[in-house]
Design a protein that fits this description.
The protein is α/β, with parallel strands linked by helices and 190 residues long. 24% of the residues lie in helices and 31% in strands.
Amino acid sequence: MEHAYFFGYGSLVNRATHSFKDAHPSTARGWRRAWRSTALRPMSFLTAVSDPSCEIQGLIAPVPDDDWAALDAREHAYARVGAAHQISHGLKESPASIAIYAIEDGQHFDPSVEHPILLSYLDVVLQGYLTEFGPAGATQFLETTSGWDAPLLNDRAAPLYPRAQSLTAGETAFVDEALAGLGVVAKAGS
């Protein structure tokens, strides 16, 4: 068996959104996150983009039975990119391969009013970072993510994100204060 792993840097950091076993904190060098859109999804979402001066935190987890099909289906708008040489982790044995999912160049565009960031999606991501890396890690997420000038749709009351989670009052306050600090104002959902 190959013992393939993947690096999650967005909603995959929130363990409540998946059943991948044996996930471990890790860091990817040479990448940053960006809010982007594609024709394949109605909302903006995170992708990894090459940035030699940046590194991002996330989780690595083994691909169940080394079968990429289910994970590729979940990440259908992305291309799978080999990144083992860029991932630092605390595993005793190095995986044979580690992939990161990223939208291919030329296949993504800036978020728009028609393709906003969903607050319910951002809530899930930041909840994961708060749980895994604490407030400092969640702040690092904000600092190593581009595109905060994108439209943000407040869909908390009726989440459009399929893996939406309930946040504690403290998590909600962290997200709201972080957005205010970035100057991001969420438009009310309809």
